[in-house]
């Protein structure tokens, strides 16, 4: 028996040592590019940073290879506005057969924001404004390989000096691309006026239309050759002085009111413009002087029937008030207005109506339950009018009670609460301080049934088990048909106490003990007073004694069988896992000879390990069967 156990234990030890050493056989370095690795130092070509997860494969599987990197540049690094520069990127390394995706940006957006400029390795862009520009590129290779690069040094774009060819104003230092082809000095211009042609010109002029004075305009615009200029009068185009308006002038003619003139010139492909304006002030006529229209009169109006300026009469004047504002809910308001001067009629509008007395008066209106606005308008003899308004706010009373329109359902306790209601008095504010109304009612009949708890433990004194009973559902008011059952008979547990076991007699004898007490007293149960035992001798005192079976009744053969079966059950799933890993190594090899060699070696070791495990189990069974055949009669 001992020889069999030792043999099984030795086979099991060999199997365990193989399983522990298997991973190191598969993953030992150095590993070529594309091989499976656990740390950087495993990798043959890149021992510093070559072991990495390339993406797209099983999780937590790392491979040897060159990490993805990128370099970037711009050429040339200095250009003039209107010229082009090429941003270039170059990818190095990366694992797998994927398409490289480039994403270029530069800071040419509003406020220096980065904007997209291309999605190829080399991007050429024309810059029409001066400044310093930074380029960035993001390089994506495969599902999880990405690297970015920022160009250094930056691209410098200088604006064009006067005399250089241009196409846009933004390309020129002066901001003026004259005629869309050459940078030139900024345009300048002035617009002035005088009472006499060739007289003293200024940017401020007042003429007297009574004396029939005229205004003469003169302008001087420079650096706008090739553009177009236009003169406008009070915003209306009044003529074009020509394409080169330098030191030109024009007679404005008779002016009867203040007038604004503007000269505006536009040139270049981008529509660059410059403008100057001047206001000619006209002195109006006083009262009783001849006139043709109101614009000729100073603080007066032109009486066309008489043909002279007249003083405008004053507008109607009066006061208009409302008493007791705010108005109490459902109350009245009294409106009062004074005697009206410079008026021929007064009329009420808004929330009241009708003609009202010029001599003054009052009206009482109501009752009011919401805000109202009252307007009184009085008109004078020359058509002028004056209006005053009074707005009356209304103070609502506090709510004091409820007007119930519907009641809620009747509860089991015989009460119901108002379901829908309004506050009283009508139009009140807030909510009543009293609670929502309730009233008594006759509850509906609801049949009860019993709901029981679980039975408790058996009472040894009464030999019964009890439980509690409650009525359900909550709020039921009709007793259950049957009475509640809250107890049942039971047999209590009988606990027996014994004296210590006696010594075991003989090599295959018995041992005995006596009963000392029962709990509860007198309970019914069978006492165990005798059992079989294995005889022996105490090694210290030499007196007969007994030993306890440490194997729980199992033979040594049975114990070894169970232990070996447990180890085999543990190792078989491990072998399956290694077969799966080996299969993945064949899949990811993709024809690579080095990778296929590693995968084949791993498959061989896994197969040998599986054969050892299964062979050990078969050999153990054969030994066990042989021993049983020899030892059994």
UniProtKB/TrEMBL annotation:
Pfam family, one: T4SS_pilin
Transmembrane portions of the chain: 570-590, 602-623
Keywords: Membrane, Signal, Transmembrane, Transmembrane helix
Signal peptide: 1-28
Top-level taxon of the source organism: Bacteria
InterPro entries: T4SS_pilin
UniProt name for this protein: Ig-like domain-containing protein
Gene source species: Candidatus Taylorbacteria bacterium RIFCSPHIGHO2_02_FULL_46_13
């Amino acid at each position: 028996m001992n020889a069999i156990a030792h043999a099984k234990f030795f086979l099991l030890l060999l199997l365990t040592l193989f399983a522990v050493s298997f991973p190191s056989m598969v993953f030992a370095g150095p590993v070529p590019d594309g091989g499976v690795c656990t740390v950087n130092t495993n990798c043959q070509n890149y021992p510093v940073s070559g072991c990495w997860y390339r993406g797209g494969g099983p999780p937590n599987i790392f491979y040897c290879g060159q990490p993805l990197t990128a370099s970037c540049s711009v050429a040339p690094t200095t250009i003039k506005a209107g010229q082009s520069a090429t941003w270039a990127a170059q990818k190095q390394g990366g694992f797998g057969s994927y398409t490289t995706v480039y994403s270029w940006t530069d800071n040419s957006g509003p406020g220096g924001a980065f904007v997209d400029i291309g999605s190829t390795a080399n991007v050429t862009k024309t810059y029409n404004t001066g400044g310093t520009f930074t380029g960035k590129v993001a390089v994506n290779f495969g599902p999880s390989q990405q690297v970015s690069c920022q160009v250094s040094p930056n691209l410098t774009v200088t604006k064009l000096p006067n005399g250089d060819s241009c196409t846009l104003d933004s390309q020129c230092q002066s901001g003026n691309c004259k005629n869309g082809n050459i940078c030139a000095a900024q345009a300048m211009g002035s617009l002035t006026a005088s009472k006499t042609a060739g007289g003293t010109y200024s940017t401020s002029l007042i003429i007297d239309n009574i004396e029939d004075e005229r205004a003469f305009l003169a302008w001087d615009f420079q650096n706008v050759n090739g553009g177009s200029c236009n003169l406008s009068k009070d915003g209306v185009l009044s003529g074009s002085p020509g394409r080169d308006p330098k030191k030109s002038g024009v007679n404005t003619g008779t002016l009867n009111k203040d007038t604004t003139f503007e000269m505006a010139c536009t040139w270049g492909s981008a529509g660059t413009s410059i403008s100057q304006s001047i206001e000619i002030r006209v002195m109006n006529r006083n009262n009783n002087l001849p006139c043709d229209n109101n614009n000729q009169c100073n603080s007066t109006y032109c009486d066309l029937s008489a043909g002279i300026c007249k003083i405008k009469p004053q507008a109607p004047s009066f006061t208009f008030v409302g008493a007791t504002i705010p108005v109490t809910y459902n109350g009245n308001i009294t409106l009062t207005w004074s005697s009206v001067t410079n008026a021929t009629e007064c009329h009420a509008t808004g929330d009241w109506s009708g003609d009202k007395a010029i001599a003054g008066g009052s009206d009482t209106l109501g009752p009011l339950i919401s805000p109202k606005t009252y307007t009184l308008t009085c008109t004078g003899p020359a058509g002028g009018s004056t209006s005053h308004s009074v707005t009356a706010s209304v103070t609502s009373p506090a709510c004091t009670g409820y007007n119930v329109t519907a009641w809620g359902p009747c509860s089991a306790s015989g009460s119901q609460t108002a379901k829908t209601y309004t506050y009283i008095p009508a139009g009140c504010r807030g909510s009543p301080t009293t609670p929502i109304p309730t009233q008594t009612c006759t509850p509906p009949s609801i049949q009860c049934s019993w709901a029981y708890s679980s039975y408790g433990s058996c009472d040894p004194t009464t030999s019964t088990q009890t439980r509690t009973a409650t009525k359900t559902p909550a709020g039921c008011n009709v007793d259950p048909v049957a009475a509640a059952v809250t107890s049942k008979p039971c047999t209590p547990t009988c606990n027996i106490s014994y004296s210590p076991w006696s010594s075991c007699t003989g090599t295959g004898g018995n041992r005995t003990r006596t009963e000392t007490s029962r709990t509860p007293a007198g309970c019914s149960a069978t006492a165990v007073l005798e059992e079989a035992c294995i005889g022996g001798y105490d090694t210290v005192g030499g007196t007969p004694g007994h030993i306890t079976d440490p194997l729980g009744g199992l033979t040594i053969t049975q114990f070894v069988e169970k232990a070996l079966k447990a180890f085999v059950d543990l190792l078989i799933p491990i072998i399956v896992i290694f077969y799966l890993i080996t299969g993945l190594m064949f899949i990811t090899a993709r024809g690579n000879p080095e990778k296929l060699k590693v995968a084949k070696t791993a498959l061989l070791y896994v197969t040998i390990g599986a054969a050892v495990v299964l062979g050990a189990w078969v050999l153990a069974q054969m030994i066990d069967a042989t021993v049983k055949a020899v030892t059994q009669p």
